Amino acid sequence: MMKGILAGIMAIWATTSVAEDMRMAVTTSFDSSGLAEVLLPAIKEDLDIDLQLLVVGTGQALRLGEAGDVDAVLVHSRPAEEAFVAAGHGTHRREIMYNDFVLIGPASDPADIANAASAADALQRIAAAEAPFVSRGDDSGTHKAELGVWATAGLDAAGFDGWYRPVGAGMGQALNTAAGMDAYILSDRASWLNFANKADLALLYSGDPVLFNQYAYLPVDPSKNANVRNDLAMALETWLVSPRAAALINDYTINGETLFVFNAKAE
Amino acid sequence: MVDILDGLIAAFWLVVTFDAELWEISLRSLRVTLTALVIASAIAIPLGTFLAVQRFRYRRFVISMINALMGLPPVVVGLVVYILLSRSGPFGVLNLLFTPTAMIIAQVIIITPVIASIAHQSMRELWAEYHDLLISLNTSKRQRIMTLIWDGRRNLLTAALAGFGRAIGEVGAIMIVGGNIDNVTRVLTTAIALETGKGDFALALGLGFVLIGLAIFVNLAIHTLSQTEREGRW
């Protein structure tokens, strides 16, 4: 009996292979957009790097970088990124691409945000109607952006009652929750387009410049520990700002809609 | 309800088309959990038996502790293992974080108390039966433990399978220490969490049914290999 079980375990263990492994923490929105599936094979082909993605919120991604557990991070929250570099956790910050945030809500639109004049106006309408609003509440880049828009609307999210619901979850989970309770939610455009469980939700408002969403690449400071692969992180940065990456990023569409716009500047 | 039906259909197609990715993550699930199971059993079964045979001062306390640890929250285990294995943590030099090994470590911690506790329970009853015989034969402590383990192997198998069940369906700890990296540490449970996040309930459920099927398969296979429930054999 033991022999059979052991033989089974040996058979299961018999597969492993490696090129150069590099780890990068990325935001949930980057992964759920589906762009990773386009970029990863190209990176493997051009650089022979097996890029391993840790898909977490921006807050946790920067935390992983701070501990030196990843070689680079790709996130979208400028103030947090600048603090990360200032604290010496990252060598520098390089802007790669952008997309935008959109306001999603029930198709019936009880707060009438589709006719709002600005993002701030849309949020004021939601607050006035006390319509259910799902917040990421997980210290992610999207969460920080949402709090920023509330601030421009002159409102403080901390003071809201029961209609404002921070769920402390990733983009997809939060969208699932919003779909379940017919609530409004701020999402990045890519995650929304790739989201399969839309239920009664619809894209109601977009286009305000405050909803601009910049993604930046930050290599982790190699002096943290000997295992941080700064050489690979630098090679990847060179690739990410190359015309090849630009073409892949700009040409990535879902249902004919462009998701990301490449905007890295040559140095 | 439609979603559940879609899930069954998705599971069916994933299995009949031998989907390469499904195959890979299923094998990885098995690899991680079975390895954790073997290590945990090697610790827990002698420990549980020892606790049944040996009398010592803090025995009751140790047994209560092990019973209590059965309810260890996986997320907390994951977080502690993460902090220990992080490159900035005490075992950072081993560079084990975000590898299958880290997932195995977390699962061993989660299931060892489960197996030890159930093993101890059944060994205690067996020891009550064997006590006089083994004492009168003047056996050594080691011989008593070995005899109990051998004669109680069917019960111990149940203990091990309980541990397997807890480990194969676990997601909280391995998500943190494994990171759900595609092709490296993605297993069935973390893939289910991922697909749920993408709102693809049919695929998530499909993977869930595959996971249930896998658990049934492993249990049947172990019972067949160990020839339980056979006429004329105990």
Helix and strand topology:
The complex is a heterodimer of chains A (267) and B (234).
Chain A: H1 2-13, E1 20-27, H2 28-32, H3 35-47, E2 49-56, H4 58-66, E3 72-75, H5 78-86, E4 94-106, H6 119-129, E5 133-135, H7 141-152, E6 164-166, H8 171-181, E7 184-188, H9 189-194, E8 201-205, E9 212-219, H10 230-240, H11 243-250, E10 253-254, E11 257-258, E12 261-262
Parallel strand pairs in A: 1-2, 1-3, 5-6, 5-7
Antiparallel strand pairs in A: 3-9, 4-7, 4-8, 4-9, 4-12, 10-11
Helix pairs in contact in A: 6-7
Chain B: H1 2-16, H2 20-53, H3 59-69, H4 74-85, H5 100-136, H6 141-151, H7 153-168, H8 172-178, H9 188-197, H10 201-225
CATH topology (level 3) name of the largest domain in chain A: D-Maltodextrin-Binding Protein, domain 2
Distance between the termini of chain B: 44 Å
**Amount of beta strand of chain A:** 15-25%
Oligomer: heterodimer
Q: What is the arithmetic mean of pLDDT of chain B?
A: 90
Shape of chain B: globular
How would you describe the overall organization of this protein?
The complex is a heterodimer of chains A (267) and B (234). Chain A is of the alpha/beta class and 267 residues long. Chain A has 2 domains: 20-98 and 213-262, 3-Layer(aba) Sandwich (D-Maltodextrin-Binding Protein, domain 2); 101-211, Periplasmic binding protein-like II (D-Maltodextrin-Binding Protein, domain 2), CATH 3.40.190. Chain A has 11 helices and 12 strands. Chain A starts with a helix and ends in a 5-residue tail after the last strand. Chain B is an all-alpha fold and 234 residues long. Chain B contains 10 helices and no strands. In chain B, helix 3 (59-69) packs antiparallel against helix 5 (100-136). Chains A and B meet through helix 1, strand 2 and helix 8 of A and helix 2, helix 9 and helix 10 of B.
